[in-house]
């Protein structure tokens, strides 16, 4: 089931740095991943441009450990309704502090989601409109049909293999218990079975035995917190290609070149 998109919801861009050295920054002279140039612009500028071009997005807040350094980036000058805030300890704590009061929805994405487009935003928000928590994902066949060379982290469920697309919708402060829980397990975000196991042995067994689809699995995980949670399948393969590794950036720059033709 889908519903209408609420008019201009706020967006958060997670633009902080994870602990430890980032191999993408080695030898570049760039202090933070969000400002690493891709296709001639800092990663973060691509993401903000896509959000600002969407008729469904209102104020945009950039969250990072040193938001002042990002605010000083010239490529971000001129964007309307753009705000900067220092993040807390961990992704979940930072989001909890940024959530609006009441039941207002919020879009969350990341600074390395550089291939984001207004059409992706519209597709995701349309599919997520009736949920408390929604996550965008791409099925493996969709990605490999366009970019067979792309390597992603996959979650295997009945009916398909899925990879995250760095788009999330959260509705109100009711999601705080889920964010608190995620804060305790987010270090294993790239280890699919560990994440599933954290929601209990029944869900893990059902996933391992391929007894449930990813839609059913996410819905069950949400019910643990009294939330309506759902997966929004994305039709564009580029939605799950983010800039994690040098090979990702090579592919992203090829895609930008194709888009410019």
From TrEMBL:
Keyword Membrane: yes
GO molecular function, one term: nucleotidyltransferase activity
Domain MobA-like NTP transferase per the UniProt entry, residue ranges: 32-139
Any Pfam family: NTP_transf_3
Keywords recorded for this protein, A-Z: Magnesium, Membrane, Nucleotidyltransferase, Transferase, Transmembrane, Transmembrane helix
Transmembrane annotation, as ranges: 192-212
InterPro entries, per database record: MobA-like_NTP_Trfase (IPR025877), Nucleotide-diphossugar_trans (IPR029044)
Name recorded for this polypeptide: GTP:adenosylcobinamide-phosphate guanylyltransferase
